[in-house]
Amino acid sequence: MGWTDRHFRYLLRLISKGAWLYSEMLPVQTLLRSREPAKRIDFHSVEHPLALQLGGDDPSQLSRAAHWGWKAGYDEINLNIGCPSPRVLQGRFGVCLMEHPEQVGALVASIRRTVPIAVTVKCRLGFDHHVHPSFLETFVQTVAAQGCRTFFVHARQAWLDGVSPKANRSLPPLDYESVIRLKKKYPDLEIVINGGITDCDEARYLLTHVDGVMVGRKVLEDPLWLASLEEAIGIDRSPMPSRMHLIENYGTYVSHMLQSSTEPQLSMHRLFQPLQTVIRGFPGAARIRQMVCQAGRAAKPNGCAWIDRILEQLSDIAPQSLLALEHAPSPSPSLARIVRVERAVIPP
């Protein structure tokens, strides 16, 4: 949460024209309490295909939020039943709902009665003592009976007792084979695998057994890796953009947002934050990050000038040979979520 907002998704769309992008998970009560819910879920038209990811346990609230998402133009509603954070558990939604598949099925059915677009579910293999394969199979079978045809499965259990959400991204070990077995058992369902995918060859192997891969953290660290992933799995795409070209195009977007946005509370920090992911790992990146942070604290009218300064500084400190590279010299290994064979993805 906190990264795949409309600005970062715009950056990703500059890299991939066909990847399915997912919003950060939005707790439905947060949306319903918002003074301007339409602005909370607003997006740029170029972001399509795009899914709105919601978290909640009340069918009427979820249906209302899903209806807003559909009217706003989202292409899919994704129900997050995999998040292990304490805030989610206190609200009695997220991964703990896997223990109640009938309730999740009722949530899916309620949303499907409200919107004509696809309703999908993101989950884990299980949580705490619910570790037997039959637990996941029962969950999927029950929810699928209510019309859900696509499941995004994070290939590890969630440990809720005394383990932080951050630790839950690396513990316990990944278990891709359990997701592959799930696909074999339910061949008519679309099963998308998620968790720890940082290698193109690994993604290519997984796609021989499941319908798609979902990544995220790796793309947060090196957005242009998404282009390499698409090429590796055979997605027809335009030539890979250079890092400098990407920054220039995103700078044009920033300028447009600053000049055209009617939002008095437009967050400069959120607007400039995606640039930090593009320059990570390059010589002088610390200085550029400092400038990005300063831009994020600047007054709105000064934003365009900051873009020019950042581009100037980047040209001065980084050799053109490096700026033309598709990836940072030393990307750090990590995970998250993004592709789906015919569509690539991004959630929290």
TrEMBL record:
One of its GO terms (molecular function) is tRNA dihydrouridine synthase activity. The keyword rRNA processing does not apply. Residues 1-295 form the DUS-like FMN-binding domain. The keyword Transferase does not apply. Pfam families: Dus. InterPro entries: Aldolase_TIM, DUS-like_FMN-bd, DUS_fam, DusA. Keywords: Flavoprotein, FMN, NADP, Oxidoreductase, RNA-binding, tRNA processing, tRNA-binding. PANTHER family: FMN-LINKED OXIDOREDUCTASES SUPERFAMILY PROTEIN. This is tRNA-dihydrouridine synthase A. The lineage of its organism: unclassified sequences, metagenomes, ecological metagenomes.
